[in-house]
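Researcher: Here's my situation. A collaborator sent me these components and asked whether they could plausibly form a single complex. I don't have experimental data yet, so a predicted model of the whole assembly would be a useful starting point for our discussion.
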Amino acid sequence: SQQGEEDPQALSIQEGENATMNCSYKTSINNLQWYRQNSGRGLVHLILIRSNEREKHSGRLRVTLDTSKKSSSLLITASRAADTASYFCATASGGSNYKLTFGKGTLLTVNP
Amino acid sequence: NAGVTQTPKFQVLKTGQSMTLQCAQDMNHEYMSWYRQDPGMGLRLIHYSVGAGITDQGEVPNGYNVSRSTTEDFPLRLLSAAPSQTSVYFCASSYSPGGQETQYFGPGTRLLVL
């Protein structure tokens, strides 16, 4: 069963604009991770945010976590064509760190 | 370091055939896992291992076997391939269990079962 669900399913923006993707989940989590997947490639880890953290930054990426709403957002600022990819959130929950559950992803297209 | 490697990159099977998807990592990671990715479904965990000799089932284990005889290798076996197993398969590894930290993914194996 899907734990995390990304929204929107697809997002198309112009280069230089900001992109925001959201992830909602159902049960309590230990942490939440965001991954990027370029077409036809493996996943690349972006950020891990723990359940006791509210915000985290990495370069042009900003991730927030609201455990009361069971949601997270990924903000990419000043987007580039190279940011075109699918973005997935993943959660480990229920006291088990062994099983990471992925959402269905948001397909981001950045037009030059 | 090569990271996580997977072979083959692409495979076509006939229904009922068996095959092994290979996964190897050179980072001395204890935790390894297999996922399948289907259109519109995201990634689903098939099997995982927390160390040599220890494996466990994920979300969709039926039709797949795994073993972990060394830290480096974690092969995935399809005993009798079915069209429903047509998918892209990813292997991943990390120092700690999957939910605790960064997972390093291989490039994937595309499998087509006719």
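Model: Some features of this prediction you could bring to your collaborator: Chain B touches chain A through 30 residues (CB under 8 Å). The longest strand of chain B covers residues 42-51.
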